[in-house]
Each structure stands twice: as structure tokens, then as C-alpha cells.
Amino acid sequence: MRVLAIDTALAACSVAVFDSDANRILASQSLQMTRGHAEALMPLVERVMADAVTAFSGIDRVAVTTGPGSFTGLRVGVAAARGIALAAEKPAVGITTLSAYAAPHQAEGRFPIIAAIDARHNHVYFQVFAPGGRRQGEPRLAPLREAVEAAAAAPARLVGSAAQTIAAALSENDAAPVSVELRAAPDIAWIARLGALSADGASPPVPQYLRAPDAQPQYAAQLPRR
């Protein structure tokens, strides 16, 4: 199986092609950015597909990060993945950003994993994974203190853009983290691998925002209609 993986959810625009039969990444590129994903994504897809010497007809599945993450970035990635999948008549699957953060550490299996993303305003998106990778609850938006309490209960691996923030908030009486891995965006190679393992969805992937947008319509500023 060949998987085209796309990630524009956070602070990178990343694309990879993974061959699960050969168990290797055929080509990948990642551009660090916090905005401009819409302009960068399709040229990046074209370059990676060319480097992988793969036509869109040779792709078996498209995988894309569905969030949580940037509102604009999520829309860009999901729309592109769904469009490519529709045109190529291939299935598209969604991968959460928190699962992608946790994936590299799941095989180790000795410690829980707390994947967390900075949601600003003293909040984080986070999810806890038991040793071995089993999910403990769904991704959620919560005050920072809830993620800190989860990390304080037992030694854990902290991963994601908020990993260092959580570690810094732990007191000397709390359980010390096993490791702290600060990454602005998950590794696209793991998104591709998770995409190969995912079951084909019954419906196209959709963004998982987990919160309302910060920008709200300013109804008070509207001019009255005549």
C-alpha cells in the first residue's frame, strides 16, 4: 500500500509518500510555517510525488491530520486530502495530531504518554495514552492544570508543542517526566504510517477543532438594514 500523507494542522506544511509493503518512506518534505499553508501545500505535494516517482493513480490512500490545531491549517489540509482522494478515486482517512505525536513512543510500552498542544489562554489540547498506546479518553480542550495533574500522577512521556509548558508547571513533589519532547508539529512519517494502519473511513475526514473560533462576528458593529 502507498499512502500520501498531508499535515497542515500546526506549525508545518508536510507531505510524505509511504510504501507499507517496503516499510519505508519513499519521499517527504516538511516546511516550518505558521501561516501560508494554502499557498505552499499543493506545490509541495507535487514535489514529493515526483521525488517518490509515484502518480496519483498509484496512491492507495490519502491520510491527513484532522486536529486539533490551527483552524485555517486544518481546513487547508483536509480540503486538499479530500480533493485528491476524490479525483484519484481513493479513500481518505483522518489522523489526529495527538495520535501522531504519541505514535513514535507507543512501541516502548513502559510509560504512559501525554500528548499536548498549546491552545493559548492557559489551555491545552491533550490526550493520555496508556503504556503500549491504548487511548485513555478522547482528545479534549482543558485548562493547563488538568494536563499537569495527569502528568503529576505517574512518570510519563510528554510530547507535543505544550510538552515543555506542562513539565515546567510540575512541582518538585510531582512525578518527574520520563522524557519531554517539544515538537512544533508531528513527524509526517508517523502520520503516513498511521494512515496505512487505519481502517478506511465510511465518510471523508473532517476537522476536529474542539473549540469555537477566537474570531467572532461583531454584530454590534453592523450597520442597521434599511
Could you name the CATH homologous superfamily of the largest domain?
ATPase, nucleotide binding domain
Q: Beta-strand percentage? A: 25-35%
Number of strands: 10
Content-based structural category: alpha/beta
How many DSSP H or I helices? 6
**Major sheet attributes:** 5 strands, mixed
Low-pLDDT segments: none
> What's the alpha carbon Rg, rounded to whole Å?
19 Å
- Identify the overall geometry: globular
Mean pLDDT equals 93
Q: State the CATH topology of the largest domain.
A: Nucleotidyltransferase, domain 5
CATH architecture of the largest domain: 2-Layer Sandwich
**What is the number of independent domains?**
2
Helix content: 25-40%
Element-by-element helix/strand order: EEEHEHEHEEEHEHEH
**Intertermini distance:** 60 Å
CATH class of the largest domain: Alpha Beta
How do the strands of the widest beta sheet line up side by side? Answer: 3-2-1-4-5
What can you tell me about this protein's structure?
With 226 residues, the protein is an alpha/beta fold. The protein folds into two domains: 2-97 and 185-197, Nucleotidyltransferase, domain 5; 99-181, ATPase, nucleotide binding domain (Nucleotidyltransferase, domain 5). The chain has six helices and ten strands. The protein has helices at residues 37-51, 71-88, 97-102, 144-153, 163-169, 188-197, and strands at 2-7, 12-19, 24-32, 61-67, 92-96, 113-120, 123-129, 135-143, 157-159, 179-181. Helix 1 (37-51) crosses helix 2. The longest helix has 18 residues, at 71-88. It is globular.
